Amino acid sequence: MIGSARIAKRFQDLKADGRAGLVTFITAGDPNIEISSVILNQLPEAGADIIELGMPFSDPMADGPVIQASSQRALDNGASMIKTLNMVRNFRKNDSDTPIILMGYFNPIYIYGVAKFVTDATEAGVDGFIIVDLPPEEAEMREPVEQAGLSFIYLTSPTTDDQRLTVVVEHASGFVYYVSVTGITGTKSAATQDIKNALERLRRHTDLPIAVGFGIKTPEQAAAIGQHAEAVVVGSAFVSKVAENLGPDGRPQDGCAEAVLNLVRDIAGGLSAKN
Amino acid sequence: MSKLNTYKDGPGGDGHFGLFGGRYVAETLMPLILEVERAYDDAKDDQAFQAELRGYLENYVGRPSPLYFAERLTVKLGGAKIYFKREDLNHTGAHKVNNCLGQILLARKMGKNRVIAETGAGMHGVATATVCALFDIPCTIYMGTTDIDRQAPNVSRMEMLGAKIIPVTSGTGTLKDAMNDALRDWVANVESTYYLIGTVAGPHPYPAMVRDFQSIIGEETRAQIMEQEGRLPDSLIACVGGGSNALGLFYPFLDDEVRIIAVEASGKGIETGKHAASLNAGAPGVLHGNRTFLLQNDDGQIIDAHSISAGLDYPGIGPEHAWLHDIGRAEYVSITDQEAVEAFQTCTRLEGILPALESAHAIAHTIKIAGDLLDDHIMVLNMSGRGDKDMDSVVAYLESSKS
Question: Quick check: B241 and B274 in contact, CB under 8 A?
Fold first, then answer.
């Protein structure tokens, strides 16, 4: 079972468990490939239900300072598209249940070659893509992804009006990612009531599961939003843990991976039961 | 090259010029970009809007800008007859204000009460701060720290005009990084804020809209050269960073038998890797909302550009230029820092005109080729801006090349 099917199965299982899933974002190769792989491989055990793996890009326009810095650290330490796929390939040796979504910007994929990238990513064990700068209007990647049986996951935001939601969800697969604030990653947080209202509107347009992200940093926030969404996305908070555990020379200190995984455990704990 | 019936009908409805252009932006921005497109489509046919814009261009900017026969340069080079389109004489000292006036009127029409912009050399920042002062709209300008250092006079001008300058430290602290942070601001303040992009780049409709607002340069040139020479020019030449002054001059002539030459900045030389020549040394890619030629490595990471001219120091180029290059309608050549500084001095001494370092790139290429052209060849060069802002850079460059 791969791709969209693996994602669907995970959401079915979460529903059966009666809880919201935790989607964890880390940047591939941050702070280096070795530590990043250790974190990735242990994420499911720490409580990640779905993994978003960021593909580092030199100009991450929708990201706040925390994820910008993580991209730069990864690139400075030799991250590349091929190494990102290798991390996934390695992960899949021991885990065939946890969906992996690659998240990032289009240019590195365009340069790799869209068709070749989708083929190589499928073979490596990737299940879906979130490409921040490919709105439905720029559809060149969606078709090969769908043909491969993988999901092309679209973002919606508070600015996405009803008319536009129709356009966005028409081609959505896997789940819908609701960006809960108008802004970049890791900055503002939305009020739970606003999110609840937004999700009600979104559900009038789609039956797909909804994951809510941007600005969710604590177990309490995650738990509150998990009451209303099928999944909660946390990213900058984990990436901050990486940054906090670097030495003055920028090298990772002992316990860097564990610090990230401990926060994953804390946040997953808050989602473990739906009221 | 295969000849098209017209080169002027782009972009298509989806914002593409052939392979290039488009709307590669985060979903949060899409509704607003569609709104800008609708508002601009309305404004194009709105007589009152166009009349108001014309009024400001005439009485505030001082248009039409002169078309000046550069006689001493012409005699010195001994070939083509060279005219300067004097955008440097516009209020604020460059072509940038043409576009800023158009967009500020649009922002008002859309009911936006805050303006943001990116700037490299500071000329677009100054022009934006100027129109924001004029219309009493708060404005925030993103500018890389490298550029703040080398364009200090423009920073003071913007602050005096009431703009808030946000120094951008990411990357190399130049135009690309300023544009990233302006886009991040826009995503966060999408309801209230209008993003006043300074060049023919970014997501659709910006490349087409900025081109249209700058096309007054070429339209005037057409009328002025007919009056002075009784015929169209044989060639046009302009510098390109993003490419708005060049496209403004070129666009009204795209369907005429006119040779079109655009000059990129090759910095310390293309072979050194320290340059800003995206068409001569880049490859197609996607950045800042559009597909165009970019300086990048083989993993799709953007490489920092280099040019002595802050206004050309950008790793991309407007998508319509990428298309004109692709179909062979325009020639894209390049000029080094050294050649630009020499041209800056030549022009100053011969004509008593201090050109912007950006415009000096176009002058340098003119110096290279004019002598080989017949003396009945008429060439129009876009003097896109004045060079007062560059005095420190030029002096520092000359000092360092002495040692």
Answer: no
